[in-house]
What does this fold into?
Amino acid sequence: MTEYKFNESMAMFQRAAAVIPSGISGNKNPAFAVPGSFPYFAVRGQDCRYWDVDGNEYIDYLCGYGPIVLGFNHPGIEAAAAKQREVGGVFNHPTPLSVELAEKMVGLIPFADWAAFGRNGSDVTTYAIQAAREYTQRRKIIMAKGAYHGSHAWCTPGHGGLIDEDYRQVLTFTWNDADELADLVKANEGDVAGIILTPYHHPAFGDQILPAPGFLADVRRICDEHDIVLICDDVRAGFRLDIRGSHEYFGFQPDISTYCKAIANGYCVSAIVGRDKLKNAASNVFFTGTYYTSAVEIAAAIACIDILQETKGIEKMLKHGQMLMDGLRKLSESHGVGIRLSGPPSIPYMTFAKETNFRRSQLFSGECAKRGVIFHPHHNWFLMTAHEEEHIQKTLDVADECFGIVKKEFGE
Amino acid sequence: MNKARIKANLYLYAVLPRLEELAKLDDEARRIAGELDLVVQFVVNAGPAVQIAIKNGEIKAHRGKVVKPGVALFFHSCDQLVRMFNQETVIPIPYRGFTKLPLMKKFTRLTEILTRYLEPSDEDLKDPKFKAAHVEMSLMVGMAGAREIADLDPKMQKVVKKLPNGTLLFQVEGGPSAHVIVDNRRIFALNGPISDPVGTLTLKNVDIAADVMAKKVDTFAALGIGDIKVSGLIPLVDEFNALMDRVSYFLMK
It folds into this structure.
């Protein structure tokens, strides 16, 4: 296969670096992938593929870090957004579409009695902990070590611009260790407002870890015993495991759940749903943003949920994700290269068995990118419904060659 | 932990030990070191202590009080030591080695040369050899200082908690390198390379490295451009860099 070049990406990055801090900020900065072996700037997308500024074409398993769930430039989503765009997006008021989406989510998610909308995941995870604090009149929030709940000061994994007070009231425990959680709650008796958990553990720079048998039930019990609000951060996994929310996939019931990414196929909408008992507390929190009620994005969200339901999109992603995982496992065995596959099939991730420093992952992902497949070396991958069997097969052909490169470089 | 204590530890455990490299890299320093047979001890009341041993043209720094010193200087507080390093007029109490005090003139000259390397002028940096030495010593200040930050800086305890175990190599292509070993949140910094590190940060050349040391570089942009490369366990590099940034913060006057 011909290896891609990234000359235009690099030239554009030089321009960016002159006028934008970091050139590209946050997790999309090249430093977090494989600098020099990954595209830096995209120009267009179609179904499960996108093209970068060099004209290189990729089959994508990062999906814009999650949002693209149906495929790039999906006609159903674009039609719904265009229809609303024709009559206006931002007004002094929300449009009836906000009510329609709230009703849809309350009808869809069994425990939900209310819903509200923001733009990004951090909007709603922060709103969730504020609602929990308002409801309980307590300070502390507990989260799992290594979990990502957004870029706001209380939870950012970054270092810059923070003061101790930003995160002093946030405690951590080890995922799947209910005893440690119980001890932490006991040590802070009467001061814990909420426990925020992703439905399964999907840290960056680590294998994904599913909930151990009984763990989530234990968390629920601890919350009930201590009147703590259980928040499910379904921003990353939502709408890829169960249309009713990932808590249903894993069989537990939170008090609040938050969504973003896959809710609107790339249009920026985030959502929070909660139980009736928390509705007044949520109401007391001043939750707003300039674009929170923007109707084009809300229209896209309604269409996205409808299409996912009508097309049984989640079942398709789970099926094709399993096909991808099985194929990678088989190929790795044929090359004698040990791998670990983790996570649910629609949100898979792969690391190499013989290492803990990601050098094989970085080589593998970089070589795949140079051959037209985007697998992130340090972050979980995503399926979208636009991935068809032919794309999976093409992906595996690329992976076959790249496993060979890893074998040659590292031996196992 | 107060700021003066952190600074005192940095000066004694990260800055002063750079005399070790100085004696290897600078001709005048090597000559002076060859003329001395002396152990100088710095002790701060209820604070850090270090011994600088100079013999046969080599300089070694040791934490604490290891051997009987030739000259011992006592500082009644961390603040007093910090003021001395900030070149304010401070007179420590010499409690041992009165007869060897004249030799301290030569020792003081060594520290003056060290200061020049760690706070170089633009003119100094025009000399490639000087610049390479500046980079090597500054790199070691940052890496050795990270240990003190990890131990003492309350603000960085969140970072320290997340610091994974492993070996981390910082290297300049065609230039110096240094590495650290992180073991259960304890940090050990050493000059030179190490094989098979779990994380590597590579600076493209001495010029880039000097600019990074001088905080003239947007490091995330440099990573994208390729002036800085990281590989392996990137969280280790990232968390460690955060500690090194704090070293710079405390050493700024």
Summary: Residues 67 and 400 of chain A are 28 Å apart (CA to CA).
